[in-house]
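Long-time lurker, first post. I've been practising inverse folding by hand and with some scripts of my own, and I keep getting stuck on stretches where the structure tokens seem ambiguous. Below is the full token string for one chain I'm working on. Before anyone asks, I'm not after the true native sequence, just a reasonable design that respects the backbone. If someone could post their per-position residues I'd love to compare against what I wrote down in my notebook.
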């Protein structure tokens, strides 16, 4: 099953970090938050990914291209320029990196991924939110109700898309109200390919007309997640996630294999080595 990520936004609310890279490449514990999300999916057996790129998409492309080489042993043939990785990284991911336009809205980015996810059930989430959600339970819930769309409803510390629920069915969807409280849209969607018919084009915002129409048609269901969920919308959010990671008790870290973790700084600029001397890092 394909897992899609929206990773093309400008990240203006965390501009301190996104001047030179897209928000999904902002690091937590030395790795981009996108890596953390993908690792969570991988822990549940998902390894086929499609990433919708936009703002500074080349940074994500370069990271993915370089990942295996930088996390493996290498044999370099100077005679012919051949580089053979061996050992090190054991990730068996397949990642489609798709340019979906600089100004394309969220719905438009999703629709542009249609050729890559195919005509089958797929998962979708944002490239800036982590959770300890049980993805197998989420998928089982989606398959049990037979509707076109399931989103994960969470109770975060801030308001996003408010949901009115009748049992597990969403009767009304409204984006970022100032007065309502309760469950909100935490992404981590499971979707049927028919949802592409609800998206008109590049200007469509997924969180508005498509989800509102799906709710009116009785095709939008909520999987209630009472566990950990946190988006990285602001610098304060990033600092909170960094603190949790540094504590060694990050709730979203569901994987165990320490060989997957690289403590180097993937960002641009300088990196301090073990001798406390500054060495230039390769630009991503």
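-- Answer (accepted) --
I ran through it position by position. Result:
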């Amino acid at each position: 099953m394909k897992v899609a990520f929206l990773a093309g936004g400008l990240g203006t609310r965390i501009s301190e970090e996104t001047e030179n890279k897209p928000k999904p490449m902002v690091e937590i514990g030395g790795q981009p938050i996108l890596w953390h999300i993908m690792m969570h999916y991988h822990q549940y057996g998902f390894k086929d990914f499609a990433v919708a790129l936009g703002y500074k998409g080349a940074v994500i492309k370069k990271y993915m291209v370089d990942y295996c080489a930088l996390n493996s042993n290498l044999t370099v043939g100077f005679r012919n320029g051949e580089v053979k990785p061996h050992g090190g990284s054991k990730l068996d991911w397949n990642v489609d990196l798709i340019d979906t336009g600089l100004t394309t809205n969220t719905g438009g980015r999703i629709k542009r991924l249609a050729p890559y996810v195919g005509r089958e059930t797929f998962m979708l989430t944002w490239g800036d939110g982590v959770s300890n959600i049980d993805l197998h339970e989420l998928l089982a819930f989606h398959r049990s109700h037979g509707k076109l769309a399931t989103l994960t409803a969470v109770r975060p510390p801030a308001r996003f898309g408010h949901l009115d629920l009748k049992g597990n069915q969403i009767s009304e969807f409204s984006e970022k109200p100032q007065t309502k409280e309760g469950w909100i849209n935490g992404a981590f969607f499971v979707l049927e390919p028919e949802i592409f018919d609800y998206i008109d084009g590049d200007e469509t915002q997924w969180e508005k007309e498509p989800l509102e129409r799906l709710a009116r048609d009785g095709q939008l269901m909520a999987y209630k997640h009472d566990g950990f969920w946190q988006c990285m919308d602001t610098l304060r959010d990033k600092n909170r996630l960094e603190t949790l990671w540094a504590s060694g008790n990050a709730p979203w870290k569901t994987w165990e294999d320490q060989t997957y973790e690289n403590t180097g700084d993937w960002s641009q600029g300088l990196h301090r080595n073990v001798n406390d001397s500054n060495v230039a890092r390769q630009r991503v």
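A couple of notes from the structure itself: The chain is about 25% helix and 25% strand. Residues 263-284 have pLDDT under 50 and may be disordered. Happy to go over any region you disagree with.
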